[in-house]
Amino acid sequence: AGGGATGVAGGAYWVDSQQKRYVPVKGDHVIGIVTAKAGDVFKLDVGGSEQASLSYLAFEGATKRNRPNVQVGDLIYGQFLVANKDMEPEMVCIDSSGRSSGMGIIGQDGFLFKVSLGLIRKLLAPKCEIIQELSQLYPFELVLGMNGRIWVKAKTVQQTLIIVNILEACEYMTAEQRKQALAKLSGN
Amino acid sequence: IIEERSFMPCEDLLYGRMSFKGFNPEIEKLMIQMNSRCKEEEIEVDDKMEADVSDEEMARRYETLVGTIGKKFLRKRDQRVQKDEDEDEDGNSNMRPSKKAKKKFLKPQD
User: Fold this and answer.
1) Residue A28 CB burial class (10 angstroms; 0-12, 13-18, ≥19)
2) Which chain B residues are Cβ-neighbours of A8 within 8 angstroms?
3) Domain A111-186: top CATH class
């Protein structure tokens, strides 16, 4: 629901609106949760209407003998190879040149949570203030999936939860409120 | 009119994996690589690795190395000659005028 923005960039027009449900799109990088292992293929939940499939050979350096160590419940960062309304979406953790370039199994620990798709686009915009302000606080690692999922990992559980709360609250906080909250935190 | 379903080309979004303050150095390197595709300034990464052995030491080592390996391929008589020469050089300042020439195979003359 709710309003959006339109934009123009080099001949392309788009309409941006608030939505929570993700629709798989080819080339999008998303965070998926492994739900099942069916022989040579993993089934991933990406928050869409159906589960995506991921072949065990779609990892960097994977061969028939050398299988990636993926268990049910693991988090995977990958991109869609096939995503249309007629077929089951298919994901890979390798790019067109065969390198993983950051994709693959997301490590242990950390915290996964869901936000709206609009916020993800805001966060991924070049020179995003939220991200810049957060990066001043303390060292942490962040993975943003276009399907509305964010994974955060910091040194302590408390720091991780603080980042999670700020990101979730960014949805409705104004820039002023956010700066105040961060100032309080960095004062601690 | 072409319909495009993804947002990527519209808004020129960054790469989704990020790390800050050195939490994950590999991802930070990746961030520089990925985001240098944008029209921002590319941060130059210093590729020069620190050498374990300095250049001088390397040159010195090579100097003696060539001699050592060369000696391996000398025939036995020439090895003895070389050894004598080295010993002599320490004692005398004069070099031996006649150095035993390498004995080549003599063709039988009819």
Assistant:
1) buried
2) none
3) alpha beta
